[in-house]
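Ticket #491: bound-state structure for UAG.
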Amino acid sequence: MKLSELFSYIPIYQTNSAIKHIEITSIEMDSQKVKEGSLFVCIPGFTVDGHDYVDEAIANGARAIVAQKEVKSAVPVVTVTDSSRTLAILADRFYNHPSSKLPLIGVTGTNGKTTVTYLLEEIYNHFQKKTGVIGTIQMKIDNKTYPVSNTTPDALSLQKSFQLMVNEGVEQAIMEVSSHALDLGRVYGCDFDIAVFTNLSQDHLDFHKNIDDYLRAKSLLFAQLGNTYDDSKQKFAIINADDLSSDLIKKSTAQHIVTYGCRSEAQIMAEEINIDADGTAFKLITPVGELQISSKLIGMFNVYNMLAASAAAIAGKVPLKIIKTALENINGISGRFESIAENESFAVIVDYAHTPDSLKNVLKTIKEFARRKVYVVVGCGGDRDRSKRPLMAAIALRYSDHAIFTSDNPRTEDPEAILQDMTNGLEDFTNKYEVISDRKSAIYQAVNYAEEDDVILIAGKGHETYQQIGHVKYDFDDRVIAKEAIKAKEK
Ligand SMILES: CC(=O)N[C@H]1[C@@H](OP(=O)(O)OP(=O)(O)OC[C@H]2O[C@@H](n3ccc(=O)[nH]c3=O)[C@H](O)[C@@H]2O)O[C@H](CO)[C@@H](O)[C@@H]1O[C@H](C)C(=O)N[C@@H](C)C(=O)N[C@H](CCC(=O)O)C(=O)O
Ligand SMILES: Nc1ncnc2c1ncn2[C@@H]1O[C@H](COP(=O)(O)OP(=O)(O)OP(=O)(O)O)[C@@H](O)[C@H]1O
Ligand SMILES: N[C@H](CCC[C@H](N)C(=O)O)C(=O)O
Ligand SMILES: [Mg+2]
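RESOLUTION: The complex was predicted; output attached.
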């Protein structure tokens, strides 16, 4: 594509030489990925500054550079005020506005994003639509999966993924939109049709200044739904009426609002809720009819997830019957309340709870059905919100009979220091917990303790198949380790 054509979408920029004739073959934001003919966009990052990699990009074949400050370069430089924003606009143009060709649902909120996206995948698959899903676990197009390094990819990878979905004939795209992505502009240029808000509770206060700033980031998804009305392409904000943050979310959008909930008055509601150890049943009340749902998903939080997915699907004109069949068909989501010890006298559950709110929800749910002791194995991630550590530890103690505090992904932090952050202030309860920093040993210990009718919750890593220590990701899967521990106990 000619640079002149690409830049026709950027109204104001400066160049140090003529760019009209330059033909580019790809856009890159990483100098290491630059090939002959690439346009290299310099992004100032948290670790390094892309502007320092211009020479490497040119050596690898860059034909032009986009920068937001002065750089020395042997090839033409286009200077813009914000290179991240420019990257999003250029990527959308380069890949031919792919998100406008796909009905696109974005899901945001502290907890439940992955779950809601997979419920929606199931619903749309039952509706005979080919789906594309982007989120924490992977990118998935139909049944083909692709690895991801972020829940919401950078703008360049994202637009490229949308183009792949268009080429693969995807009829419904569904994605998780993290607060980081919204704050950093990774989803600028995405033409969302439906935006879903699950809930807000504490997380990521290492990145966001405070909880208000975190909520403001989440609200951007709703602000980005657009400010005009188009009969042929209606846009919807799907909002949890029972969440205290919903007022601000509602005010952030000019688009149609669909509310869901169980306690406050809402358009989509669950009534006559019945939750037990095998599943959940409720009556789904909607403006287009009512019906009974009987799902294998466990816990009140999953009723909310099912309501969120149902509300989005109703906005997307999916018939209620299809929604019912899909919700009743889904067995569970990888690493979310996943039951491991099917043939044992005790239960082992692996769950991705890594926030105070999700840990509390999941433990309260287990406590309701547990016949005997509840053990929890949990840690907190390094290089992440420190203030959630003592809260998660206190919740683990309060809602279990015995807690084993261990490492999650320590990343570049000292694992013992993370555990100190968790246990500071718990000196009076040392008989209710122990600290085993090696995660494998912690899981083995819990399994060794377990007797008939006990439940073990292994929280925090869910579907993850690695443990990151320093900058290295080692193979590690809670589910595999738990099964090994059970086998060893049986011997
Ligand atoms: C804090 C944060 O969001 N960091 C993201 C950011 O990394 P960074 O700012 O450190 O990037 P950098 O290494 O400084 O590089 C700056 C620029 O220089 C370029 N570069 C760098 C090196 C080089 O040799 N050549 C070169 O050109 C890079 O390609 C980049 O364009 O940009 C990277 C590329 O897009 C992201 O992968 C990275 O996410 C990291 C891995 C991360 O952990 N992010 C977390 C906090 C995150 O975003 N989480 C949310 C989910 C949270 C949730 O689910 O609740 C997510 O959406 O994943
Ligand atoms: N609606 C909900 N409200 C509160 N907790 C929930 C909800 N749904 C799921 N959880 C809990 O949160 C954990 C993570 O769920 P899920 O992966 O769906 O959330 P997420 O928002 O995608 O998380 P992440 O921010 O890591 O991508 C689950 O394992 C469960 O313990
Ligand atoms: N997307 C979340 C995942 C946290 C999962 C937990 N296992 C951890 O490493 O803290 C994050 O990056 O904060
Ligand atoms: Mg997720």
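RESOLUTION NOTES: Residues 3-94 form a domain with the Udp-n-acetylmuramoylalanyl-d-glutamate--2,6- Diaminopimelate Ligase; Chain: A, domain 1 fold (CATH 3.40.1390.10).
TICKET STATUS: resolved
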